[in-house]
Amino acid sequence: MMAILIVACAILAAAPFAAAQIPTGQAPPHKAHPPATSESIAQGKQIFDGTCAVCHGIDGSGANGPNIQGAARAMGPEGLYNRVWGGVIGSGMPSFSYLGEDKIWDVVDYVSTLGQVNGGAVTGDAQKGEGVYQSSGCASCHSVDGKGGDSGPDLSNIGSVRAPSFMRDEILNPGANKPDGEPGLSSRAAYGGYRMYRVTLADGKVVTGTRVDESSFSLQLRNARGDIVSVDKLTAKNIEELPDKSFMPSYKGKLSDAQVDDLVAYLATLEVKQ
């Protein structure tokens, strides 16, 4: 009897974790997956950008939610359809059943292309890339395994959470594809913490910086020198978010295509240590 109780308790203790991994349900009968077309992929991208990218990133490589670039290979079209239709219990993934069959299949078609275009593969030399990383001054802002600056994101595990295509875009067009996030939540602070703002103060002076913290009354920004500036939101003349701006400079034209490929190859090796 005691053994039965122990087993039962173990099952109950594991239930919340198991529930978090279980889809909300099997989609009801629906039409078979129609052949993907350029139109369906384009429609799917439009829907994805408006409803999915905030969590999975604009290229599917992850933001507040997981990297889904390999989802199509792992789950197949029908598996993707069920996941979009039903969501996942206990996670941030809601059901998108309201989209209807046609639009869900459009999303499936677009998600199936993620990671297959725009330089999704690593083609450079990681050893040379480490040299590019050092000579380009990346370590002055970014840290790897505790070494380097802190004005930019920690890159120690960047290879685990960002696809090569995303990293290449960030090197050439920093700020353009910045993942979304909510600085008030510690689990998401790494994504929203590099949003840039331009604030016109009461005396007409202008402060530009990345958001460090914010309350109902004040906004703390880190300027280009690394100084923290506190802004009184009630007296500021104007507070403007700069969604496509970044303190990180663009390396377009500064690095050759080969150097960019090598740098991406190096960053791709920076993964979670097992």
Helix content: 25-40%
CATH class descriptor of the largest domain = Mainly Alpha
Strand content: 5-15%
- What characterizes the major β-sheet? 5 strands, antiparallel
Pick out the low-confidence regions: 1-23, 180-191
Provide a count of the helices.
10
Gyration radius (Cα, Å) is 22 Å
Q: How many domain units?
A: 3
Strand order of the main beta sheet, please?
A: 6-5-4-3-7
Quick synopsis:
With 274 residues, this protein is an alpha+beta fold.
Task: Set out the fold topology.
Layout (H helix, E strand, L loop, with lengths): L1 H19 L17 H14 L1 H4 L14 H16 L14 H11 L14 H10 L7 E2 L2 E2 L9 H4 L2 H9 L16 H4 L3 E5 L5 E9 L3 E5 L5 E5 L5 E5 L14 H12 L6
Antiparallel strand pairs: 1-2, 3-4, 3-7, 4-5, 5-6
How would you sum up this structure, described in words?
The protein is an alpha+beta fold and 274 residues long. It has three domains: 20-111, Cytochrome Bc1 Complex, Chain D, domain 2 (Orthogonal Bundle); 126-177 and 251-268, Orthogonal Bundle (Cytochrome Bc1 Complex, Chain D, domain 2), CATH 1.10.760; 196-242, SH3 type barrels (Roll), CATH 2.30.30. Helix content is 38%, strand content 12%. The chain is built from ten helices and seven strands. The strands form two sheets. Strands 6-5-4-3-7 form a five-stranded antiparallel β-sheet, with no helix packed on it. A two-stranded antiparallel sheet has the order 1-2. Strand 4 (206-214) and strand 5 form a beta hairpin. Helix 4 (71-86) packs antiparallel against helix 5 (101-111) and helix 6 (126-135) packs across helix 10. The longest helix is centred in the N-terminal third of the chain and has 19 residues, at 2-20. The radius of gyration is 22 Å and the shape is globular. 29% of the residues are buried.
